[in-house]
Amino acid sequence: MMKSLIASHRGGTLLWGENSRRAFENTLKLPVELVEFDVHPTKDGVLVVHHDATLDRTTNMTGPVNDITWQELSQGSVNYSGGQRIMTLRELCELYRNSDIQLRLEIKGDINKVPYPNIVAQVLSELEETGMKEKCIISSFNCEVLAEVASKAPKMFTIWLVARNMPSLLGAEKVAQIAMDTKVNEVSVHVSQIMEETQQAVKASHLEYGCYGAHNEADINKALALGMYAFTTDRPDLALLLRNQFMLRTQ
């Protein structure tokens, strides 16, 4: 059986504070395959590593990320980080330059979930400039964003993050068809929405099938048992332990 790939979600949210430098530095020490994170642009176009479109939930600042300049943003701090500021995408690329861990970059939308103007070109340009384009995969919930990535960087591995209720609403064949039309490489559903028929349809389309949101023992074991290609987790340490146990049981 193929070994499911583990993505440290936002650097290991439940361990070190999401999308913090401390989280990314600690993830570097783990034998995971992927580190997952999100990007938004500041008002002056600096790509920063942050999940929400607003700063309120995870920093000591407020308001939309793209309403504030990088100079202003850099004065704040990320919650549970020990006072560390938000990282830029460029800084994260430099941090992982010599690691075997691949970057799993999610392109986010604005406060209305609308893609930022020119965001795909900006992300690809930054990855190119930092020499990390070959070590990065792109994920998004937005199929238009993913289709643009496919057109601009056809060799880049991409992941369609399927909204939580979509697999059951659309049906397996429709999910697979959208994925093929969008030219993604992997379909990733919420761990609660893993369905055998969707998995079969996706695999029959020669695409990978993964999941996100596997943050506890039961969900991690579910992802492993059902043969997910890759999964994201807030507990990469626990996922590694459970994967080792699973591999020993199934050898």
Describe the structure using short key phrases.
251 residues; alpha/beta; TIM Barrel; 9-stranded mixed sheet; 11 helices
How are the SSEs placed, and which strands pair?
Layout: E1 5-9, H1 13-16, H2 21-27, E2 34-41, E3 47-49, H3 70-73, H4 89-95, E4 102-107, H5 119-129, E5 136-140, H6 143-152, E6 158-161, H7 166-170, H8 172-182, E7 186-190, H9 196-204, E8 208-212, H10 217-225, E9 230-233, H11 236-250
Parallel strand pairs: 1-2, 1-9, 2-4, 4-5, 5-6, 6-7, 7-8
Antiparallel strand pairs: 2-3
Helix pairs in contact: 6-8, 8-9, 10-11
What does this entry look like structurally?
This protein has 251 residues and is an alpha/beta fold. It has one domain: Alpha-Beta Barrel (TIM Barrel), CATH 3.20.20.190. It is built from 11 helices and 9 strands. It has helices at 13-16, 21-27, 70-73, 89-95, 119-129, 143-152, 166-170, 172-182, 196-204, 217-225, 236-250, and strands at 5-9, 34-41, 47-49, 102-107, 136-140, 158-161, 186-190, 208-212, 230-233. Strands 1, 2, 3, 4, 5, 6, 7, 8 and 9 form a 9-stranded mixed sheet that branches. The relative contact order is 0.15.
Distance between the termini: 8 Å
* CATH topology annotation: TIM Barrel
Shape: globular
Number of helices: 11
Radius of gyration: 17 Å
Biggest sheet character: 9 strands, mixed
- Model regions low in confidence, pLDDT < 50 over at least 5 residues: none
Helix-strand category: alpha/beta
